[in-house]
Amino acid sequence: MHYGTKKMTFLAAAAGFLLAGGPPVAAADEDLTELRRQMEQLVYQNQQLTKRMVEIEAELRGARAVARAEQESVAAGGAEGEDAAGQIGEYVTLSGTIEVEAATGEDFSGESFTDASLATAEIGLDVQMSEWASGHMLITYEDDALTIDEAFVILGDGEEMPASLSAGLFYVPFGSFETAMLQDPLTLEIGEIRAAGVGLDLGLAGLGAAVYAYKGMNEMDVADTVGVGARLSYELEFDPVGIAAGMSWVSNIGDSGGITGYLDEMGAEGIEDQVGGFGADIMITFGPVTMIGEYVQALDSFAELEFAGGAAEPKAWSLEAVYSTAFGEKDTTFAIGVQGTDEATALGLPEQRAIAAASMMILPATTLTLEYYHDEDYGVDDGGTGESADVLTTQLRYEF
């Protein structure tokens, strides 16, 4: 109602103004034309402004979409990285050992020596991406040389079936060579064999069996000699007693590192005949006390090894007693042992050894060991010096 009254009043006033002789008609037309032009210009500007605002809004939406996509990409990438890290942690196990040693003593010639060295540095890598296959690699720095000590693949699931197949570079299951000492037992010096080959392991109810074949040392005029061997073992536990025993056979004990090393130094390109090897070992645990015994021997003589004017048939044995306890919540081990060899002068091994060691885990994963051994050389008639040697060694070992 009020809107209609105002409109009628405005029209009446305008009519009275025109009838009263207002501005000329031409002037009124020009004003109307100018007003129309300004209105059209205002409408155009408003349209352009609206168009620009729409464009700006579109640009803002696009920028926000890009930013959101980048954030999602970064988040996804982080998740993928975490997944990858999780997979590495799930499938790969990394381990290692660092051993630093300092030694002082006197050798068979009566010369004193003192030495400090990085004795060993090892990195082990175990990978298992399925239940039926796993891989193992051990990289070792020892004697100023970096080597791939082990690298092999294992096929089989020990929890589902009692058999597994190993292929690659490994230590064949000849002998046990268990010890609580820093020095390798003399049995290892004669019997340990590392080679590229394949092995089959069987185990059931404490009984174990292993058969293997590997690339061995060449016989004279025979290329690509293959070595073979087997091991039988048995383990029994009835608290607090545990027993582990085994017997081993190999077609050529000349493939051991100790004998091969000697032949390499002598420049031998092969051996006249393969010589079989036999080993027996036992470990008995009764509470904190462990007794270890082992015997290794060649089953025939080597024409390439001399002893007392004839061919040598080397053999070695080792006996060891170990006591484990704790001092101030620190795991501590005391060990004492006697070892010996026969017909092993050419290999540079002593005839007898008395040895003792004490170890303590001073920090988590960190062990300090003090070891002393006394060696008696072969007599002069057997190609030795008839003298003795004494060595005191301290080792700091870190494992992870």
Task: Describe the fold and architecture.
The chain is α+β, with helices and mostly antiparallel strands and 400 residues long. The protein has a single domain (91-399), classed as Beta Barrel (Porin). It has four helices and 18 strands. The strands form two sheets. Strands 1-2-3-4-5-6-7-8-9-10-11-14-15-16-17-18 form a 16-stranded antiparallel β-barrel. The model is unreliable at 1-25 (pLDDT under 50).
Query: Residue ranges: pLDDT <50 for 5 or more in a row?
Result: 1-25
Assembly state here? single chain
CATH architecture: Beta Barrel
Give average pLDDT, whole number: 85
Encode the helix/strand succession as letters. Answer: HHEEEEEHEEEEHEEEEEEEEE
- Tally the structural domains: 1
Strand fraction equals over 45%
CATH topology: Porin
Helix count from the secondary structure assignment: 4
Radius of gyration, rounded? 44 Å
Q: Could you say which overall geometry the principal axes of the C-alpha atoms support?
A: elongated
Number of strands: 18
The CA-CA distance between the termini, in Å, is 96 Å
> How are the strands ordered across the major sheet?
1-2-3-4-5-6-7-8-9-10-11-14-15-16-17-18
* Helical content (DSSP H or I, runs of 4+): 25-40%
- CATH class designation: Mainly Beta
Tell me the major beta sheet.
16 strands, antiparallel, barrel
